[in-house]
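Here's my example:
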Amino acid sequence: MADWKEKIRKICTNKWFELVITIIIIVNSALIGVETYMKSPVISHVQDIILGIFTIEIIMRFIAAKDVRTFFRSGWNIFDLCLVIISYVPETMMPNSSAMMALRVLRVLRVLRLLRASKEIKLIVTVLLKSITSMFCNMLLYLIFIYLFAIVGVGLFRMPDPQTLSGEEAVRYEEFVRVAPNNPHNSSDPYGSLDEAMFTLFRVMTGEDWTDLRYNLVTASEMGVIKTPTVVVTLFHVFWFIIAAFLLLNLVTGAILNNYQKERSRQDVHGPDSDED
């Protein structure tokens, strides 16, 4: 029994075995894409064969593991096992179209098995998962800053309600809307509310039309629609872009790189399949 288990372990760790499984995963992923264009009995039969191969593979890896606990300590094994089990659920068991659609979406996740195609890709995924705690702290810091700037932005740049305007103020506002419309036209006041201001600042962080936003506010300031000086408009958005795009994003990058180096060192010592800290 021990010799038989050792032989299966050697097969599972053999480079040719891993290469064959990788090729099958790629073929399976390609066929999933082909099925979005056409349905064919041939493709269905090939998919059934591939599912059988995946089933044999997961059984072999279960046997090759030192024990049951070792097998289930690997997140990759749990992920593959869940995908295989989901693939065996017949669509006829689904009570409604929504459940059937959810099942199909879950089956499409088999494409994610491509993440196993390279040890480097597996390393990157592991690093990202282990960086969640660090990124959560960075996200909390980001939310504090975006909330602070959003409150300031609403106070400085919120446009007046056109229904409350009359006389010269209404004329100036209508002229402003004509010469400097929102981009896109159906968007609301970028700083009209706290939630909209936070989304606007997120747009600025991504670099999406933030200069157009600044030009519109400068025009509004020059036309007297808002009372904020143009220099404040410019400084506000430049400071936010520097803080968000450079400082906060660099913190996230630094956290990921730090975890990458730690995980790389750990794998060099314990091996890529070790779960030791």
